[in-house]
């Protein structure tokens, strides 16, 4: 989505920022336990005002969030009663910095060394061409050995706007050549707010742990390649729908909003 879309979303609030969750995302606590990441430097691209940054700050050496819209950053500090000092585009608090910047423009010097990237509602927030730019930026900003906890949602029928449906095959197509990809979670969520709002036939939230082995080869981030993967996934979705329904995982008439609509 273009920058204006996000400025407008934060200006309007309410439904327009319903991606914000009040809780700590369960995948975060399960798959990035404090004891394994003590002393890490954690990068949170497209951070919004996520409380997950507070979870990481408890044990990380430093958490670096990146957010385009200043209003979201100010709300983060205000909502959490945290003091901060502003140095240009850097909002600095104890062991936490939020950069007010376009993530795609950052250099490794801007963020410093990174051990863990946490992506929730970032990769899925962008249409294909922008998404590939985002992946280039993540790859440029992280050293070999860095890990990434990545959440995506997969649903059908697909929508032409954020959050985009991203299946495990697409994650593999983007990252598997250069990263180890461990598919940790696939949670069917019939009560997710998007299901009711858009009449979705299924929605699955996926969690992955990636570990970087090498830089991504530029030719693998070609939009044509990924459009073909998207077609393949849509064919697979029809089979998945039959499986989900057949296994009774999708109760008929199920309603109710998910606490954090992605
Ligand atoms: C869907 S929200 C997700 C926020 C957060 N990750 C969460 O889980 O609540 C995407 C966020 O990315 C921000 N954003 C969009 N494009 C960006 C960019 N190019 N650079 C930095 N932030 C961006 C938006 O303002 C918005 O706050």
UniProtKB/TrEMBL annotation:
<dbReference type="GO" id="GO:0005737">
    <property type="term" value="C:cytoplasm"/>
</dbReference>
<keyword id="KW-0949">S-adenosyl-L-methionine</keyword>
<protein>
    <recommendedName>
        <fullName>thiopurine S-methyltransferase</fullName>
        <ecNumber>2.1.1.67</ecNumber>
    </recommendedName>
</protein>
<dbReference type="GO" id="GO:0008119">
    <property type="term" value="F:thiopurine S-methyltransferase activity"/>
</dbReference>
<comment type="similarity">
    <text>Belongs to the class I-like SAM-binding methyltransferase superfamily. TPMT family.</text>
</comment>
<keyword id="KW-0963">Cytoplasm</keyword>
<keyword id="KW-0489">Methyltransferase</keyword>
<dbReference type="Pfam" id="PF05724">
    <property type="entry name" value="TPMT"/>
</dbReference>
<dbReference type="InterPro" id="IPR008854">
    <property type="entry name" value="TPMT"/>
</dbReference>
<keyword id="KW-0808">Transferase</keyword>
<dbReference type="GO" id="GO:0032259">
    <property type="term" value="P:methylation"/>
</dbReference>
<dbReference type="InterPro" id="IPR025835">
    <property type="entry name" value="Thiopurine_S-MeTrfase"/>
</dbReference>
<dbReference type="InterPro" id="IPR029063">
    <property type="entry name" value="SAM-dependent_MTases_sf"/>
</dbReference>
């Amino acid at each position: 989505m273009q920058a204006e879309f996000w400025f407008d979303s934060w200006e309007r609030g309410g439904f327009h920022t319903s991606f914000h969750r009040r809780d700590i995302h369960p995948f975060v606590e399960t798959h990035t336990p404090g004891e394994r990441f003590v002393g890490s430097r954690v990068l949170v691209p497209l951070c919004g005002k996520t409380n997950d940054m507070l979870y990481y700050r408890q044990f990380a050496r430093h958490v670096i969030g990146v957010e385009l819209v200043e209003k979201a950053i100010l709300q983060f500090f205000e909502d959490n009663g945290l003091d901060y000092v502003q140095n240009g585009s850097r909002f600095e608090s104890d062991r936490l910095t939020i950069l007010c910047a376009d993530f795609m423009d950052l250099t490794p010097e801007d963020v410093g060394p990174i051990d863990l990237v946490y992506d929730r509602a970032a990769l899925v927030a962008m249409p294909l061409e922008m998404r590939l730019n985002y992946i280039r930026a993540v790859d440029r900003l992280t050293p070999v050995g860095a890990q990434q906890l990545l959440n995506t949602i997969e649903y059908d029928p697909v929508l032409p706007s954020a959050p985009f449906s991203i299946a495990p095959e697409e994650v593999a197509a983007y990252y598997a050549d250069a990263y180890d990809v461990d598919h940790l979670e696939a949670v069917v969520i019939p009560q997710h707010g998007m299901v009711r709002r858009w009449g979705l036939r299924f929605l699955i939230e996926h969690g992955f742990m990636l570990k970087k082995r090498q830089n991504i080869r530029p030719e693998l981030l070609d939009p044509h390649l990924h459009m073909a993967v998207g077609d393949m996934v849509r064919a697979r979705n029809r089979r998945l729908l039959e499986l989900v329904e057949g296994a009774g995982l999708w109760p008929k008439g199920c309603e109710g909003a998910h606490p954090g609509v992605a």
